[in-house]
Amino acid sequence: MTNTLTPPGRPVGDGAVAVKPDDRLAADKRYKIIEATMRRYGYQGHGLIEALHSAQEAFGYLDDFTLKYITRALRLPPSKVFGVATFYNHFTLKPQGVHTCVVCLGTACYIKGAREVLSAIESGHGVKAGGTTADNQLSLLTARCFGSCALAPVITFDGETIGKVAPQTVAGQIAQRLATSALR
Amino acid sequence: MNLEELNATATNERLAQAKKNHHLHVCVGTACQALNSEQIAKALQTALRQQGRNGEAEVKCVGCPGLCSLGPLVEVASRVNGGPTQPANESPADANHRTAVLYQFVKPEDAEEIIAHLGGEPVKRLETPLDQPFFTRQTKVVLENCGKVDPERIEDYIAVGGYQALLKVLTEMTPQQVIDEITRSGLRGRGGAGFPTGLKWGTVAKADPNRYPTNVPEGIQSRKFVICNGDEGDPGAFMDRSVMEGDPHRILEGMAIAAYAVGANHGFIYVRAEYPLAVKRLRTAIRQAQRAGLLGNAIGGTAFSFNVEIRLGAGAFVCGEETALMASIEGGRGTPRPRPPFPAESGLWGCPTLINNVETLANVPPIILKGAEWFAGIGTEKSKGTKVFALTGQVKNTGLIEVPMGISLREIVFDIGGGIPDGKEFKAVQTGGPSGGCIPAQFLDMPVDYESLAKVGSIMGSGGMIVMDDSTDMIEVARFFMEFCMDESCGKCIPCRVGTVQMHRILTKIQEGKATTRDLQILEGLCDLVKHTSLCGLGQSAPNPVISTLRYFRDEYLSKVKPG
Amino acid sequence: MPRTLTINGQEVSAGNEQTILEAARDANIRIPTLCHLDGLTDVGACRMCLVEVVGSNKLLPACTTRVQEGMEVHTDTERLRAYRRQIIELLFAERNHVCAVCVANGHCELQNLGIAVGMDHVRYDYLFPRLGVDLSHERFGMDHNRCILCTRCVRACDQLEGAHTIDVLGRGARSLIVRDMNIPWGESTTCTSCGKCVMACPTGALFKQGSTVAEMVHDVEKLAFLRAARERKVWNV
After folding, report:
1. What are C's interface residues with A at a Cβ cutoff of 8 A?
2. Per-residue pLDDT for A50 more than 70?
């Protein structure tokens, strides 16, 4: 039973369809984390966003398979799950690059030149905001404010905050970090 | 934990702290943490051990003391006499203040020198004066513990009087008395609109949970709810983040008091996913409070039960709007719905729901402890208490400030903020984020309160205050906010969904020199339409940055449009 | 207990649970609507039915606002007419609404409203996004370029058919009507091909396959009939 798309915590019946065992669910432990989140909300619909958070964190994006898994576990209409997953900026349906750089475009950063910082990264690394480099090493995203306005303009690289960046040097800073991690 | 046990915990903690002569407070707020302040805390601890002084001093990681532009900050609080006991009527915070030294731009390498100077002359090269206007002109109520208590230890909060207010209301006051106290204090919602808090509480308390159809999920035993709105989405605002990171227990205490007053047994804190540190600290705080019996069942040995859950936002500004926020907690798309019915009558899952902003709830415990009169004594006639602002932009001292309502903009920008750097001139200050407006120099002496800000075409907002110098292009500012609203529009109602796109197009045309005076007319018509016909607050306030820049900086627009 | 109110100066009696829209309709006062459809719950999204209520500083949607004793409602002021016209113009500029080549020409609520509000030109830039047309279903089709995102199809599918095949994807101006997990309509496993979404559509966005220009007549009354039959066991034939 644990290998089915129907979560083990809930009896099969009342219209929920048990599908044939799927190796991917059994093989990938990350589904256990999503499962635990959904169990915490009693597999009820109000746990949808928390479940999506779990999945986004575990996989870095939400693919069709995972969305369907959540849809069945929470017994929600597929279109509703898709509607929620695409409403919120935090969720992505495409895989991200190995590293992620986020440029803050909040007001304080904006008036201190965040737009120029973004352009510098875009041209320096050949990637547009929202995209990933051809070698899949770097995804470039923008955010609405990290709340680190005192360090404006701010970017983050793999979650690490880098403050007071300048258009002239920021592309180099990122290149350096990419190189360092490649060595590791 | 009942009142006696609470007092005992407070006393023990104070005694334990009093054994140390020196308290080193390292800021681990988001901005300082980004500058490696946790390494500094570790280095200070190592230095203490190496110099054999860990018996007389302790290192504490604390929330944001405010002056982010000088971070990482380390405050060293030393007692004058260094005696082992502390006067009974003096809180550690008071004692600390007497001989505090603040170090700026600290690096881990500075740790040894800082420790070596404990009890002697401060390290001059790192010192920044505590008697500068940035500190002396502030009045701290909401932020009184930020930068003083360790946000990850409940004992530290209890030692400064934490949870006293909660146990006081549970044992000494009726729900109605609590509501009356809040009403008399004159507290108004700090999320932006300034609705009287006591009135809101009273409405929820009176609301009949059976009036509207409800649909509460299994496992949640409550028919009324309290929601703390921590979806601080305004770009350039981080007040709530600092409180959630720096003093999380205070929010839980405020929520529990509110829940008791309105008759709710379940609460939610809705926090932006972009604030991982706040989420972590709140989770820790909830766990600690539950273990201490200050949340959960039979709080403080009374019959009152209250549980709190955290729900993460997922990157949608519109979820700061209360009906959208509730839709999001219910697991759906965060789209607002028309009011009435108001959440106070039919909110989360159809139940009467109280939604208050973080800062509003953080004001509650001190009002209960010190009394409505004390609170009403701060501020102006219609705007009581203090307001926290995130002061950023082209100003020398950027960071978090808390000022009494009614202070002038000039005092904030030039005294506390230290004025405009690089010899530039002041041009405007933007308050209220995408819902607010730009206030020009002619109103610098205006008092900062709800009514005055509204009169000049801005709003108090949640507390973002962005200073702009004479090099700022005001149309670009308007376009920036319009782009924000366009991207964040949920798309449900037509005026906001399409109107913001059209306004953004016209602003872009103006910037590209392709617009005519007719476009300007169309823009003004759209401002009027979107303001008055949009479904929710996001749309209704989306034109504000355009309206206010058109009002005060019309020349800039006219210089860029062709006749036509 | 019935309530007495005035609408445009005319005294009107209404049930206490009635909305302003219902009360007005009973009194033969027409308020323009677009996202409202008899038989579906109201969402107050299109803002066409906004009315002025004396004492309220905000305009209120007639479809979701309940009547109150002594309410003084104005539904057809110059200001409201100007706003309605602007809203219709915004819709015409948002996507591709060239009536002359549309299957719903002559049977379109958007077109009718355009005439009713006296729209003789559109003052805004046409945005003309290039959106898809889904013809994968054997009987029906969807042209996103004609969609005004009123969500009547979403509600019909959820509330009347109960399948919830349809929802909204994305947000803001990038919103789109979506079936299941954004798959072609013909491949939907939840769609029952009942056609209620097509009946509910106010424009030419949803249509029967094979319809040519001006042939697509929506059968919106069927949905109100269905709701009354299902819930109240009343057959208005």
Report:
1. 158, 163-171, 178-182, 190
2. yes
